[in-house]
Amino acid sequence: MDNLFFDSDVSLDSIKNLKIVVVGYGNQGRAQALNLRDSGIDVVIALQDESKTAQKAMEDEFRTISIEEGVSSCDIISILIPDQVMSEVFEESIVKYLKPGKTLLFSHGYNIHYGDIKPPDFVDVVMVAPKGPGHLVRSEYEKGGGVPCLFAVHQNGSGKARELAMSYASAVGGGRSGIIETTFKDEVETDLFGEQTVLCGGLVE
Hints:
Blueprint (H helix, E strand, L loop, with lengths): L3 E2 L7 H4 L2 E5 L3 H12 L3 E5 L7 H6 L4 E2 L1 H7 L2 E4 L3 H12 L8 E4 L3 H4 L10 E7 L3 H9 L6 E7 L5 H11 L7 E3 L2 H16 L6
Parallel strand pairs: 2-3, 2-5, 3-4, 5-6, 6-7, 8-9
Antiparallel strand pairs: 1-9, 7-8
Helix pairs in contact: 2-7
């Protein structure tokens, strides 16, 4: 497969001197943040004021900041909050603080593909989607393995978006088992098909 990559194909050099803010500290947020940090990447956690996960992030010895501060001060903004609230948070706390040179990173393509979020054209927009729940993303990494990741590029104004996405995927453990290049459209439609047709019983019905 010419769209399948491993750690041997990827360098972390493109992100090792960048600062990443992980917005949200739930299922994927915690796992990805811990794996990134253990890969030597500079990571902070951005949470809303009323977040119930702030205590957990502090117990894990992360610095927690506001979303606005995280977007303003970091190079890669990894948005790992639920899809149903993402567009509102994006409009209230993210888009006005974006500047050229920043990268928006998603782990599911839904809000981009269906147009609920419309990023400005001066930022890079990428996706890194581990194909497993957060606890598995973390436990496999700790065991020396990794959960396969899909990655895709939606906007590449800097010319470096693909390289950044691959490096991020490798840093969260994906390169240990395989990083597969796809598109936002294909990731969303296959994911929804799997959820609705297989996991939620559509095929049985």
